[in-house]
Amino acid sequence: MESNSSFSLQLKVRDYECDMQGIVNNANYQHYLEHARHEFLLTQGLSFAKLTAEGIILVVKRIEIEYLSPLRSGDQFSVSCEPVRISPLRFGFRQNITRLTDNKAIITAMVTATSINTKGRPFLSPEIDRLFG
Amino acid sequence: MESNSSFSLQLKVRDYECDMQGIVNNANYQHYLEHARHEFLLTQGLSFAKLTAEGIILVVKRIEIEYLSPLRSGDQFSVSCEPVRISPLRFGFRQNITRLTDNKAIITAMVTATSINTKGRPFLSPEIDRLFG
Amino acid sequence: MESNSSFSLQLKVRDYECDMQGIVNNANYQHYLEHARHEFLLTQGLSFAKLTAEGIILVVKRIEIEYLSPLRSGDQFSVSCEPVRISPLRFGFRQNITRLTDNKAIITAMVTATSINTKGRPFLSPEIDRLFG
Amino acid sequence: MESNSSFSLQLKVRDYECDMQGIVNNANYQHYLEHARHEFLLTQGLSFAKLTAEGIILVVKRIEIEYLSPLRSGDQFSVSCEPVRISPLRFGFRQNITRLTDNKAIITAMVTATSINTKGRPFLSPEIDRLFG
C-alpha cells in the first residue's frame, strides 16, 4: 500500500474557482478532491468514466472536510489520496490539500464511498475490492 | 428559534449540475447548501456580500455531508437551514435536502463556521452573535 | 410562435456564481442560458435528459454572447429563450438576460445548435423539427 | 508579438466538468479559455487578481465560440491565447482549444474585452495598452 498512500496530484488555483471573498469557494475543494481520486484510480487501472459506462457506479456516501486555511489566486497545491477499507461494502479515501510554496495544510478530508450496479444494489468489482484490500 | 428552524428554500436541479452518471455531482450539493445558508442569512437581515464588503468574512471550518440518495434532472427539492451555536467563536447550520415529489431524504449535513476580520482574527459581529444566540 | 417567443425563466444570482470581482463569472451566464433553454424545451414536451437517454444528442455548435452589464449578489433576473430555425439541420435560440428590478439589459446571446444520434450523424427528431418549424 | 501568439496552456479534462452526455459541458470551455487568458497575462507580468485588487477591472464584452468537437473524460488538450488590438478601448484574444492526442480542433473562439476602473469608466493601464500594442 505504500505506493498508493503516496499518490498526490499537483494543481493550481484557477481564478474562476475563487468567489467574492477572493478565496477558493468551499465547494471547489470537493472538485479538487474528486479529481485527485479519479486520477488515483486511473493509476490503479480503474477509469471512473469506463466504470460508469459499464454500469458500475462509484458513489460517495459521506464526506467530512476540515477547512484549515484558504487557497487564493495563483496558489499551487497538492491533493493527496490514500485508499482505506472501511467495511465489506464500503471503502474510503483519506485526502489532504497542501499549498506547495510553504507546505501549509489547507484541507484534510475523509471520503467514504461504495459501488453499486445499475439496479442500485451494492456491487464491488474484483478490481475495486482488491484496491481497497 | 422556531421561525429560524423552519427556513427552507425550494430549488430545481439544473441539467449542467449533473455529471456523466446522470446525477447531481457531489460538489454541487455544497452549492445548494451554501445558497440556502446565504438566503437564510438574508431573511435575518444579514447579507453575505455586504458582510464581505465590510470586512466581515464568514468562513466554513468544517462540513459533514451524508449522501443518502441522488438528485436527477428535473428533480425539485427543498434545502433547509437551522442555525446552531457551537461555541463562543463557532456557529453552525444543520441542513437537509429533501426531494419534494416523494419527500425522499437526499442529504443531511452539518456545517461549522466562524467569522473573521480582514486580519484573519475571529470576529463575530453583534448581529451574528445574536442570530446564533 | 407567440407563445414560444415569450418564454422566460426568473432566477436569482447565487453567491457562489460570483467571482473575485464581485460579479457573476462570465461562464455562469452560459449556465443560465442553458438552463432556460432546457426549461423552455420542457414546456414544449422535450426533456434534454430523456433525449440524451434515447440517444438524441442536442449539441451547441456556436454561441455569441454580448455582455452588456454584470449581475451581482442578490440580483433577480429573467432569461428569455426564443427558438429560431436556421437551416434544415441547424436551429437556434435568441436569448436575453434582463435584471428584474430596473429592466437593465445584461446579456444578449445567439445560440446555434444541432441534434445528432449516437453515431455522430445529424438527426432531428420530428418533435425538434416541428418546434423550430 | 510572435512570442505572445505562441502562448498555450496544457490541461486535462476533469470528470466533474462533464455532463450527462459524457462530454465537457459547454460553459466549462469558457472556464478553460478564461484560465488560459489569465495565465497568459501572468506571463506578461499582469495578474488578474492584483489588477482587480488595484481597481482595474478587466471585463469581457463579447464572446464568440465555435464548438467543433467535444472533449471527453481523460482528454488532454491545449488552450491557446493570442492578443489582438481591436480599438483604442477594446482588446481581444483569439483562442483555440486542441486535443493533444490527435491534434483535433475542439473550439475556436474570439473574446473581446475592455478594462474599466471602479467607477465603471474605461481605463486601460499602460501595461495593458502596451500588451495589446
Describe this structure as you would to a colleague.
- The structure is a homotetramer of 133-residue chains.
- The first copy, chain A, has helices at residues 2-5, 26-43, 48-53, 126-131; strands at 8-12, 57-67, 76-80, 82-87, 90-99, 105-116.
- Chain A has a single domain, classed as Hotdog Thioesterase (Thiol Ester Dehydrase, Chain A, Roll).
- With 133 residues, chain A is α+β, with helices and mostly antiparallel strands.
- The mean pLDDT of chain A is 93.
- In chain A, strands 1, 2, 3, 4, 5 and 6 form a six-stranded antiparallel sheet that branches.
- Chains in contact: A-B, A-C, A-D, B-C, B-D, C-D.
- The interface between A and B is medium-sized, with 22 and 22 residues.
Topology readout:
The structure is a homotetramer of 133-residue chains.
Chain A: H1 2-5, E1 8-12, H2 26-43, H3 48-53, E2 57-67, E3 76-80, E4 82-87, E5 90-99, E6 105-116, H4 126-131
Antiparallel strand pairs in A: 1-3, 2-6, 3-5, 4-5, 5-6
